[in-house]
Amino acid sequence: MSQTVITKKFMYVNRKAPYGTVYALESLEVALIAAAFDQEVSLAFLDDGVYQLMRGQAPEGIGMKNFSPAYHALGDYDITSLYVERESLVERGLSEADIMPITWEDEGDNWIEKPSIHICSRKEMSTLFAMQDVIFSF
Amino acid sequence: MKFTIMINEGPYQHQASDSALQFTRAALAQGHEIFRVFFYHDGVNNANSLSRPPRDDRQLQKEWATLAEAHGLDLVVCTAAAQRRGIIDADEATRKGLNMSNLNNGFRISGLGQLIEGSIQSDRTVVFGD
Fold first, then answer.
1. Residue A3: pLDDT above 70?
2. Beta strands in A48-129 (DSSP E)
3. Measured between alpha carbons, how far is B6 from A27 in angstroms, rounded to an integer?
């Protein structure tokens, strides 16, 4: 008996800072586990969520484990699009230079390393949301 | 329409669970199907059988269990989130040599895959959280 394979566009919207609450960590756990289901997954970062991608995280001083290296593994899980809202960066006095250089290796293009991070406007983010089948918001 | 509902906040602390209950009741009343209700983050505390709110207040765990029984709903509590927050079913209690469990009737503990599968199979996923 054949089974229809359904592929949907999943977006994980991250709105909270990486430390101080558990939302960022547990959101990442969902994304990594969901990778086994072969869906089209992308991540969006807005409001304080942009802090999740900041370079140089060193939370050991507050007794927390630095889980930012896990974002670099997303490419291996076929999550290759991380959308970061420009207005959220600007509102926080941040720029693209503050963001970790997250990349993925394109198997179909000689394993060339390509950037996963895409900075987009609030308006573009809205358009991206409208294209999704499933949106999880953390 | 087929719905998967996600609840990301604990009972009483936040209105998420109340809103989700009301939405679920309304959807069922209109003839929609609730494929699965998935509890994540502090939402797993909606399945804590030890909750004892004041007598004149609503009892959320019980309201979910009652609704689930009346409509055959699948209430799933995320295992990773549950372990962090101390929500344990009878099997886990036995495995860990504990003499008690606190998963309320009507709920089951399972993996995040249940959420993803629910979203794949449903027409809409609705998230209640902060």
1. no
2. 82-85, 103-106, 112-115, 117-120
3. 13
CA B54 to CA B62: how far, in whole Å? Answer: 14
| List of residues 6+ apart from B15 with CB closer than 8 A | B9
State the complex-level ipTM: 0.93
**Which of B68, B2, B73, B75 lies closest to B32, judged by CA?**
B2
CA pair distance A113, A104, nearest whole angstrom: 5
Would you tell me how many other CB atoms lie within 10 Å of the CB of residue A39? 18
CB atoms within 10 A of CB B90: 12
Task: Please give the biggest Cα pair distance in chain B.
Answer: 45
Please, which residues have CB within 8 angstroms of residue A120's CB and are 6 or more apart in sequence?
A83, A84, A85, A86, A128
pLDDT tens digits in sequence order for chain B, 130 residues long: 999 999 999 999 999 999 999 999 999 999 999 999 999 999 999 999 999 999 999 999 999 999 999 999 999 999 999 999 999 999 999 999 998 999 999 999 999 999 999 999 999 999 999 9
Q: Chain A partners of B116 at a C-beta cutoff of 8 Å?
A: 10, 33-34, 37, 39
Structure tokens at A108: 């179909």
The pTM assigned to this predicted structure is 0.96
Cβ-defined contact of A8 to B80 (cutoff 8 Å): no
Q: Do B41 and A10 touch (CB under 8 A)?
A: no
Give A-chain residues touching B6 at CB under 8 angstroms. Answer: 136
Kindly identify which residue of chain A lies nearest to residue B128, measuring between CA atoms.
A137
pLDDT at A33: 86
What angle in degrees, to the nearest 10, is found between the helix axes of A23-34 and B113-121? 70
